[in-house]
Write a structure and sequence with these properties.
four-stranded antiparallel sheet; 2 helices; 29% helix; alpha+beta; globular
């Protein structure tokens, strides 16, 4: 499956540490696209593992992670406005 993962971490007490950990975990499984956005192909098993790792750091009352999924990347249209990031050029 192909996913786009976006996270929003509250930058209060402890927020920077949470953000660093979330970023490092996401980078193990997906391609970093922009700020707090990752994308890539992932198996359902690896997605479950990613979620388990992220659950250790996500604070339910303060932080959020959104995952958009599709069976395949070809079902998504991607359009850049402004600077096109070369990190995703291998996905076209």
């Amino acid at each position: 499956m192909y996913i786009i993962l976006i996270y929003d971490i509250a930058m209060d007490n402890g927020g920077p540490k949470v953000t660093r950990n979330i970023f490092k975990i996401c980078r193990k499984y997906l391609t970093h696209v922009q700020k707090s956005v990752f994308e890539g192909e992932i198996t359902p098993a690896l997605l479950a593992k990613l979620r388990m790792e992220l659950d250790q750091y996500i604070r339910d009352e303060e932080d959020s992670v959104i995952v958009f999924s599709s069976r395949n990347e070809r079902w998504l249209e991607k359009e850049f406005w402004g600077i096109a990031d070369e990190k995703t050029s291998n996905f076209f």
